[in-house]
Design brief:
single chain; 265 residues; alpha/beta; 2-enoyl-CoA Hydratase, Chain A, domain 1; Lyase 2-enoyl-coa Hydratase, Chain  A, domain 2; 2 domains; 46% helix
Length: 265
Amino acid sequence: MQAFSTLRYEFDQVLGVARIKFERPDVLNAINLQMARELLSVVRDLGQREGLRCVTLSGLGRAFMAGGDVAAFAGGADKAARAIDDLLDCLNPAILELRQLNAPILAGVHGVAAGAGLSLALLADVVLAAEGTRFLLAYDRIGAVPDCGGSWFLCQRAGRARANELMMLSRELDAAEAKAWGLVTAVAEKASFDVEFEALASKLAAGPSRAYAEFRGLLDKSAGCSFAEHLESERLAFLAITQTKDFEEGVSAFLEKRPPSFRGN
């Protein structure tokens, strides 16, 4: 497997879990161009993987991710624009392709999730936060606007008023508040965070991966279509799922009154 300098990528062939860990701990895992390129490379590898059941995102050291590496934006408007374009030329397709994978995405967030780090946490289907984690947009502090889907995910999860509060009033949330706002699925004590994170990954990996992916797609489409269009999208997604072995197993298990054994196909 290819070696990376800014992140760790492992694929557990037994469980079908792909683990991506951001590894620039000296700068709280801030994204630079190298990390953006490596993330895109990893995501494209995942798109070719047989047996993928779950993708996890986490960070090494004291934080999940503190956003973009702002030092790259210094030196004038033209230099900043080139740096941001280069980053997003990698990050935008990586994010889109991640959410098109036929597997659920789990983010394990600790320390801080700020800027693009918050966006990357929110792209996950399930987010586990450690107690004491801080969530903030941070773009307002450099006079910028969110990227990596941050403004889209925030409106979907928390609504426009709360998105405005985070951006325009520089609001920070702790883990409990983030859960109350719908940004986080669950909160774990620091001592048990790693164990709970792996338990969630195993639970998701044992589920009907294709159905989870189709469900994510339906939620994403719902924001930009009429109710009638959404009903048709649901119909097409359901028809596609009927062709999977997991659907056949789920129906059989239901009728036989036993727990299903899903295999992600």
